[in-house]
């Protein structure tokens, strides 16, 4: 079944795509007057975004990176590296692909063939690592690029885009172009399917340098980013940023993670807004120093705008969101995830989530116009550079002055009451820091010792303790051999008559015996009471061996010269004197 989702409705006459209009470009009158349309639409054709000459070509980069895209000429920031038509799948199409692989393969095949024989030939040349899904669907699963289109997840593939590798500090961005505008039932114009993708340079790219984009926007240092890349994509990141480990870039990305953790606590947003602005300013300085322009910049600006909106600071919130919207337009295009959201927030700042939690930064959008006019002090005012971590300086509190060198500067004007509060807060914080300081302890680990030395010492101490316990067990008792010979104490000594050999009164309960030595003395006393002295040793040996009823008797005969022992019971057999001896030891009728 052929299904081309890129076909436009019949009532749309002209083809329009979304991108920033240049000066002098005509704007459709039907859309220029509609304030509900977030993006400005202009008449254009596909060839306007395609470069006139080839600026890159695929090249094998090694075993770790595989193939990549390398620049054949010097590329300047903002230049279009290349553009090509792409195929894409919406969530509904992906569900059909999962439920019916044959239907999904046919769906992707129809879209590939619709782009022409050249695209189809190049598409089928790509390696297929999932042949079980078919010729077209297998290639798509092997090389697709995950993205978000109009706030929903989608997948896209281009023949040349599949050669672009990932980088934590990309020098290019992938921008998606919509096919044409489609009216919705609410009357708003929304872009249709993805028409083609454009790769635009974010930084100067020299001849022979690899062109890379960002698959994901991981934060943290090099180790954290490698782990994230392994969990998301199944490989360890080997980009230039991770291999060279630029300290400035690592600090900026680590602070991005720090900023996320600080934003996770509401108390930091309410009580320490200036501290969050300070972290964001350091991130922006690090990105600017390394020449990085990516979606992380958009995220930092959005967080700053949401922080300002939480304190009812419309001036700063609008300024941050406006800058983030321009970055989103340049990096992700108007059909990306960020641009529609930022455009809505710029129109009405009060729609930002969490607006008005605090009234500390109360201001209006018009208060920021004077700040934007002064480019030199704009950065200091937006990020509240000179304020205290627990302070929120309003836009109207800044006073412009000239410093000693004659350059423009700004200063925060505080009232006497505010200054007294700051001084009191400073003294309280100073006391808290003194209380947190701890004196040096002798039990602290010496910094000169490494981990292996500490581990060796811990193992040696543990072995010494175990050896001492073992020696104590060996020398603790002198009767260990005798205890092993006797065995554990038993409650009953059964006789051959099936009756108990002793009563509880004659033989003490083992639970009453507190120690093994006491039990041993009681056992010897009972043996001597039950048998004559001449048979004491044999009876002792018989009790130690713990023979069962069927075992051979230890004592063979009883001398008749000793009439004081009556050892033959009524049912005892005269042919088996051993049984009689057993009865003489264990029978309650035995007389000593």
Tag the structure with descriptive keywords.
592 residues; 21 helices; four-stranded mixed beta sheet; Beta-clip-like; 42% helix; alpha+beta; disordered N terminus; single chain; disordered C terminus; three-stranded antiparallel beta sheet; 16 strands
Protein described:
By secondary structure, this protein is an alpha+beta fold. It folds into 3 domains: 16-217, Beta-clip-like (Beta Complex); 247-417, no CATH class; 480-586, no CATH class. The protein has helices spanning 29-32, 91-99, 101-114, 117-124, 135-143, 222-233, 240-244, 247-263, 266-271, 273-290, 295-310, 314-331, 338-347, 369-373, 375-383, 416-436, 451-475, 480-486, 516-530, 536-545, 577-586; strands at 16-18, 41-43, 56-60, 67-71, 80-85, 87-89, 145-149, 152-157, 165-166, 172-178, 181-183, 189-191, 194-201, 210-213, 398-402, 408-412. The strands form 6 sheets. Strands 3-4-14-9 form a 4-stranded mixed sheet, with no helix packed on it. A 3-stranded antiparallel sheet has the order 5-13-10, with no helix packed on it. The protein has a 3-stranded antiparallel sheet with strand order 6-8-7. The chain is globular and about 75 Å long. The termini are far apart.
Summary of the model, kept short:
By secondary structure, the chain is an alpha+beta fold. It is 42% helix and 12% strand.
Main structural class: alpha+beta
Looking at the structure, what is the overall shape? globular
Query: How many helical stretches?
Result: 21
Largest sheet: 4 strands, mixed
What's the mean pLDDT score?
69
- At the fourth level of CATH, the homologous superfamily of the largest domain is SET domain
Helix percent reads 40-55%
Q: Tell me the domain tally.
A: 3
CATH-derived architecture of the largest domain: Beta Complex
The low-confidence runs, each spanning 5 or more residues with pLDDT under 50, are 1-48, 186-191, 484-514, 531-536, 546-592
CATH topology of the largest domain: Beta-clip-like
Strand order of the largest sheet: 3-4-14-9
> What percent strand?
5-15%
Nearest-angstrom radius of gyration?
Answer: 44 Å
- Cα-to-Cα separation, first versus last residue: 108 Å
Q: How many E strands?
A: 16
Given this structure, which CATH class of the largest domain is correct?
Mainly Beta
